[in-house]
Amino acid sequence: MADALSVIPAAVLRNLSDKLYEKRKNAALEVEGIVKQLSGTTDQDKINAVINLLINEYTYSPQANHRKGGLIGLAAATVGLTSEASQHLDQIVPPVLNSFGDQDSRVRYYACEALYNIAKVVRGDFIVFFNQIFDALCKLSADSDSNVQSAAHLLDRLVKDIVTESDQFSIEEFIPLLRERMNVLNPYVRQFLVGWITVLDSVPDIDMLGFLPDFLDGLFNMLSDSSHEIRQQADSALSEFLQEIKNSPSVDYGRMAEILVQRAASPDEFTRLTAITWINEFVKLGGDQLVPHYADILVAILPCISDKEEKIRVVARETNEELRGIQADPAEEFDVGAILSVARRHLSSEWEATRIEALNWISTLLSKRRAEVLSFLSDIFETLLKALSDPSDEVVLLVLEVHARIAKDDKHFHQLIVYLVQNFRVDNSLLEKRGALIIRRLCVLLDAERVYRKLSTILQGESDLEFACTMVQALNLILLTSSELANLRDLLKKSLFNDAGKNLFLSLYASWCHSPMAIISLCLLAQTYQHASSVIQSLVEEDINVKFLVQLDKLIHLLETPTFAYLRLQLLEPGRYIWLLKALYGLLMLLPQQCVAFKILRTRLKTVPSYSFSGEQFKQLSSGNAFPEVNNFVGSQVSEDGAATKENQKNVHNGINFAQWQQQFEKVQEQHRAHSKSEALSRSNSTSSAKEIQRPEEPKRPLPAADMNRPPSRSSRRGPGQLQI
Question: What is the value of pTM for the model shown?
Answer without folding.
Answer: 0.74
